Amino acid sequence: MSDPSHPTGTPRPEVPRITVPEQGNPVSPQSSTLGPGDESIKPASRSGKPFLEVPGADSRGNSIDEKNFQSPTSSNGGTTIAHASAAEISDEEALRPDPGTEEDFRVEDNRFAFTPGELNKLINPKSLPALKALGGLKGLEYGLRTNVTAGLSLDETLLDGNVSIDEARMKLGAYKGRTQEEGIAPEAPSTPEDEVPPVQLSEQAFADRIRVYKRNTLPEKKAKSIFLLMWIALQDKVLILLSAAAVISLALGIYQTIQAQKHARQNPDNPESKEAHVEWVEGVAIIVAVVIVVVVGAGNDWQKERQFVKLNKKKEDRTVKAMRSGKAVQISVYDILVGDILYLEPGDMIPADGVFVSGHNVKCDESSATGEIDQIKKTPADDCMVQMMAGANTKKLDPFILSGGKVLEGVGTYLVTSVGVNSSHGKIMMALREDVEATPLQVKLNGLAEGIAKIGGAAALLLFVVLLIRFLANLKNFDGSADEKAQRFIQILITAITIVVVAVPEGLPLAVTLALAFATTRMLRDNNLVRVLRSCETMGNATTVCSDKTGTLTQNKMTIVAGVLGKHLNFGAQSEGVGKKHNEMPMNEINSKISDEVKALLLQSITINSTAFEGEEEGKPAFIGSKTETALLSFARDHLGMGPLAHERSNASVVQLIPFDSARKCMAAVVKLPSGKYRLYVKGASEILLKQTSKILADPSATLSEVQLSGSEVEAIENSIVSFAKRSLRTIGLVYRDFTEWPPRGARVEEDDSRQAVFSDIFKEMTFLCLVGIQDPLRPGVPEAVRQCQKAGVFVRMVTGDNVITAKAIATECGIYTDGGLVMEGPDFRRLTKNQMRELIPRLQVLARSSPEDKQILVRNLKEMGETVAVTGDGTNDGPALKMADIGFSMGIAGTEVAKEASAIILMDDNFSSIVKALMWGRAVNDAVKKFLQFQLTVNITAVLLAFVTAVASEEEQPVLRAVQLLWVNLIMDTFAALALATDPPPADILNRPPQRKSAPLITVNMWKMIIGQAIYQLVVTFVLHFAGGSILGYDLSEEHKRDELSSLVFNTFVWMQIFNQYNNRRLDNKFNIFEGLHRNWFFILINVIMVGGQVMIIFIGGAALRVVRLDGPQWAISLILGAISLLIGVVIRLIPDPVFKKILPKAMYSDRKTPDLFVSDDEHRFEWNQGIEDIRHELQFIKMIRGGRLNSLKFKTKEIKHRLLPLSKSSSHQPPGSPDDNSQIPPPSPSSHRRKRSRSNSAFAAAAMVPSIVAGSVGGWSPIEKPMEGGDRGLPIPASREPSQLSREASDHSVTQVEKSPPATGTRTPPDTSRGASNEKP
């Protein structure tokens, strides 16, 4: 394909091959002189600064400037240092190492001309002098031992010989004396005619290249070792207190034991001397329990970190298009090497730094790398060098491609110069290395755990004070030695501390982490790659899904099944029969029925005006690119006799390419014909193209001739469009127009290239060539998935770029469109007022002919109405809507890199059914946490009350459950139960309930019912056994052994009640089958076996260490029966109606958490401040996290979003929402906007400080609270007597904000509104 940067027919210089070095002398650059027309080479940015200059003191563009640059003085008295002009900087200066980077400039046995450090000087900052110092593009090609047209050789292994930088600089001679028009830029690489078989790379492949320049990967972030995690876990303040107390207890115990043994030797006949002296055992047991808690907690964290490393590897891997050995191939982003030739296409995320080789109208967004918000147009490196050597102004030329940037438009290729840690994006990523953030649920639970810990701490402090007073009061009556008194005091301290240990529910955040880690790993099997962890739990409460059509609901395997060629020729596939016309010619007869001239025209229209290329998929030859384009190319190959694509393209001389744009819904190419004329081919949405046509191809079977398009012919084409749409076919139009010269006389030209015409000036008076209908069948299982969503209370909407008839047909087939639903077109929808949208959206099921901006408007309104919104998108322009949604789903196969980056979950198979799986797992995560919370609170309440009451009642200040026993209970409830309850897979009926509201309380009435009921039962059983067990069971409690038996029985019963209660907590509803799905959760069964085995071992061999004795058969029977009764208690509790229990429960325990629906109304410019004070109170309540060492170390940053109160400044409150400064891309705060970081200006305390202002303002007569509309946010129902289409038209009539479109040009005709439409996908 020809490059547009030079006229056709100019002889090209031979591209130097890496094996034949050119000889010559380096040419010194001429001095910089500015001609009068040089300023038009490239436009400046909107800020007036050159594109290579970034606002701020540290301008990246200062090294490139004109000769007479004066040193300005800044307004604050600072000094700006002026740099020499690009032409004046010496090669040595341009490549001088920056301080601290000297190591990058040293490479042993370098087989290439350049070091990684020298190549980095191209980019940081962008430097044309550095490019010149490396020999320009030709020097880079030679020095990197690559080929800009064929790419790297697949046979490359170890390289022979060396290349010097001086040899590379000799290539500058190719630029001397040239002009831009002479065509120095290489031809863009195209796919070869013959398919190259796949080459197996040897282990030595690219060995030298990888050794010198490294791979395109960042070194793995060093994971914390298990020992470091154990040390972090031990930093918990409570565990430190407990460990200190245990050490003191151990020291005193050893001292007591030594003293007792000494006393026994002195008095061997004393009966006490014959007893075993193990006073040290309790201290050892506590230390062992602490070690177990630390090891288990650290082990969980270690496992979780490893899972996230695996997920991140999968998340960041993607394929890119590259040229190797002259063949277009798809390679992993990790396999990109310095010297590779990569393709650039709209929507691509640039994976490595490089230099632009050639292409058409490539513009990039480099804001993520440089901060410059303008689109930056790229100039081929050879053109830049030609102008630089000629002494022209190079200030506005930019041939540099920055990694991390995005391709906004255009197509082209570039040469990779830096990868991995050497690339600009790699350096940024190495500096940013993020820690895992807490999800909103984790933050909520951290707050809850903090509250519980405070209550437990207060109880422990009260207990310590009470016991200490009693101890001091009885001290004079105590006969023991001093060390025994000390031991007694230490036991009091240990008891109090242990209550804190039991009360601190550290298992809560652990449960969320485990549930999320388990769910994300399992979701990957269901083709959901979770990029943002919080989205997993948010998805469980999604209330509406806005889905794309193409590729998500349909298979995205497009084939042409019908069409109209010229005036009269209708054709169709024989298998496609629904609504088929009787006069359709079979498609396999087209080739023989049309003339060679028309066939050549049709072939060129399809092959040249396309970005798809030939390649391989799963080892088979295939077209790679947009599915619409590949369908057209397949049609050309199968029915028009098209040869190899590269051959067809090499015969054409392309002078301008206009890439696809979703705003104009078409793409175009201009070709120079052998006759000297120029032909413009346009392909795109049939309705858009039909408006701009004035002629039609007369007879496809005869020589090429055109006739004027009559009204009846326009009507016939419109009828075909409607007919195809009713058959669920996508319609694509092909039109063309001939010109005698290029750019055409009277047409405007692009500012930065006078050889390219402005598309809007030439896109008129076209000739209609062909209309095709493309079939995209529904994915199997989509109707069932839609039904499941609707059953789960999730409203499914289709948002598509297709016309309204096609969209409605597909939506009906899916089950999305139902009777009484509303179908609207994007242009009508965006013209509605805010109130009209609120009325229509609840019934809106299909939004057809919509732009990405329409999707964004819909998502914003749904969020303002309190919905939790999931959105699917695949295009670059879908990015804002994906970011704005609560959960953004991007397409793993068809999605652009920008869309994937903006999304929270990637659908690896692009299938709508995977969204249902995500919904199920999201609910499973929320359920798992609630199950564990229900279990945790039951044990907390019981254990704390039990320890407190029995310790106060005991004469020896000892609770019925000793410290070491409470630690075992803590281990069970914190860790084992978290593991067991967090791994329940979602049951089949999890979708048979509506989603939870955003404001729903964390602990429901049903959960409180089970928590309080079980806690009462456990307390009653334990108190009865402890205080009345001796008399009931006939034990003589004057005997120490019997007292120990009763104490062991109480402990054993308490633990078994927890084990059985765990089964109760497998259900959160009032159904009785608590064993449902148990056989599928082997993890739950295994953990229960461990818990039961551990308890049995403790009773049989725990002995003095855990202060237990062996129990006999009847005692085991009592323990097990009383434990099992908790299952029956669970049945009784479930029988109590929730409304009855709700009446006796304090309202604060179950009331909704009020969250404000805070937004600016478009038409009334007023703020709604619903429950602003409540929001502040909620924020203060959860402001801090639990003070656990392990949790703090994981840096769970509190980023739960509290909704921003809009600043009450004049500039913001009185600014019309439609004004240019209005940031319409950012959604208004909503209860679920969990993605924004908090700054000091909108922290909880700033919000609290505003309260007096609000109150004072209301006293003065200004009310910040406005009542919502009657009928609520969802608006009033639409009267049945009015048709949706009529309502839509009436609504659009009221709008005065929509800019009227310019009338069509003379000789064009506008089809009726009902058939307008097009896809946002590239045709």
Automatic annotation (TrEMBL):
Belongs to the cation transport ATPase (P-type) (TC 3.A.3) family. Residues 960-1135 form the Cation-transporting P-type ATPase C-terminal domain. Residues 201-249 form the Cation-transporting P-type ATPase N-terminal domain. Catalyzes the hydrolysis of ATP coupled with the transport of calcium. It comes from Arthrobotrys flagrans (Nematode-trapping fungus). It is an enzyme of class 7 (translocase). Residues 25-34, 69-79, 1283-1323 have a biased composition (Polar residues). GO terms for cellular component: plasma membrane; vacuolar membrane. The chain crosses the membrane at residues 238-258, 278-298, 452-472, 492-519, 932-953, 965-983, 1015-1034, 1083-1104, 1116-1136, 1244-1265. PANTHER family: CALCIUM-TRANSPORTING ATPASE (PTHR24093:SF369), CATION TRANSPORTING ATPASE (PTHR24093). This is Calcium-transporting ATPase. One of its GO terms (molecular function) is metal ion binding. Its EC number is 7.2.2.10. It is found in: Membrane; Vacuole membrane.
